[in-house]
Amino acid sequence: MKPFEVRNAHFDRLVNTPGLRWMGQNTNHATPHPAVLAAMEKCIRDEEFHIYAPPAGLEELRHGIVADLGLPGQAALLSDGAVASLYHVCHTLLEPGDEFITTDPTWNWPMAFARSVGATVTQIPIYGEEHGYRLAPERLAAAITPKTKVVYLVDPNNPLGSACTAAEIDGIVAATRQAGAYLIHDCTYRHFAYDHTLAATRYPERTITIYSFSKWLGFAGLRVGAVVAHPDIVEKLAGAPPNNLGSNILSQRAALAGLTIKDEWFPGVLAQQRANQKLIKDASDRIPGLAMPVYPSNGNFIVLECERAGVKPEALVAAYQEHDIMIRQGAYHTPTFGDRFVKISTSVPTAWVEEFVDLLPRLVEQARGRNEAVKLF
């Protein structure tokens, strides 16, 4: 079998595992608000799926996304999820010979998109106490070259959960503006942050904000997101989008309902996932060698370091798989630092987290010293 077939078969097994506890993909498993379910049911009953949605998205939803971000004067272009937004932006703005700068770790797929059009990728390491698990603006400025076309910032960072301060955003914007480059500010997890500053408030003319409904609203499988940018940039992106017949209308109706009830529903989701983080922190603190380097996390996930406990991330992932709990090995995010940690999603039912922490002491002992040959993705 080709590698893509093996990879797909792996995820097909996960999807078809009854009762699997999804704690590795940052998905949100909170019970949806009744208004969101009602919007989807109405869309199906009215058989709206026979028609194409507007090419840039439902107008009310486009304006609702811009309002949720608080970016008046910017425009939204709906997409089939944030990763589709990133694919389209990279394929539209980058050319062979351009440079794409990001951090290590980062969200991997945009690097693949950049390379696929002939751009080079530069990563700035941010993992470790020496870097504070964050990007210092002066390190970005030092890395920028005359070929730099795009700076890609995942903020809050996936997988670390660190978030840029307002001063750091100011510095990152200054370095990017001086280079005349675009700044892609991937804000997939901003709704979970304790504090968050949008780069577009400082650099509206060349910041491209990536918006997602997958995480805060729990719509990972519905695939709806958006690019938000200056209208001139959106005009360029709207010229040849991959979803030029409109994104999924069922997803858009549900997303619109989600924005309507966000202030009522989301605070409870946020409180639960932060409490789940604390459960894991308290449990890991009791096990020698385990450490949570970024706590509290500004995302709906945490990084748990296991290297000093003598545990390989892949071995711990495999041990949890035997209990139908899916967590993720660090190598998925970074080959350089991936042997140090696992990542665990926290926007899940508390019962899942309680099961995870109850198993943790035993599975750490079980995984210690083991080299797993199991193929993970």
UniProtKB/TrEMBL annotation:
<comment type="similarity">
    <text>Belongs to the class-I pyridoxal-phosphate-dependent aminotransferase family.</text>
</comment>
<keyword id="KW-0808">Transferase</keyword>
<dbReference type="InterPro" id="IPR004838">
    <property type="entry name" value="NHTrfase_class1_PyrdxlP-BS"/>
</dbReference>
<keyword id="KW-0663">Pyridoxal phosphate</keyword>
<dbReference type="InterPro" id="IPR050596">
    <property type="entry name" value="AspAT/PAT-like"/>
</dbReference>
<keyword id="KW-0032">Aminotransferase</keyword>
<dbReference type="Pfam" id="PF00155">
    <property type="entry name" value="Aminotran_1_2"/>
</dbReference>
<dbReference type="GO" id="GO:0006520">
    <property type="term" value="P:amino acid metabolic process"/>
</dbReference>
<dbReference type="GO" id="GO:0004069">
    <property type="term" value="F:L-aspartate:2-oxoglutarate aminotransferase activity"/>
</dbReference>
<dbReference type="InterPro" id="IPR015421">
    <property type="entry name" value="PyrdxlP-dep_Trfase_major"/>
</dbReference>
<dbReference type="GO" id="GO:0030170">
    <property type="term" value="F:pyridoxal phosphate binding"/>
</dbReference>
<dbReference type="InterPro" id="IPR004839">
    <property type="entry name" value="Aminotransferase_I/II_large"/>
</dbReference>
<feature type="domain" description="Aminotransferase class I/classII large">
    <location>
        <begin position="25"/>
        <end position="358"/>
    </location>
</feature>
<protein>
    <recommendedName>
        <fullName>Aminotransferase</fullName>
        <ecNumber>2.6.1.-</ecNumber>
    </recommendedName>
</protein>
<dbReference type="InterPro" id="IPR015424">
    <property type="entry name" value="PyrdxlP-dep_Trfase"/>
</dbReference>
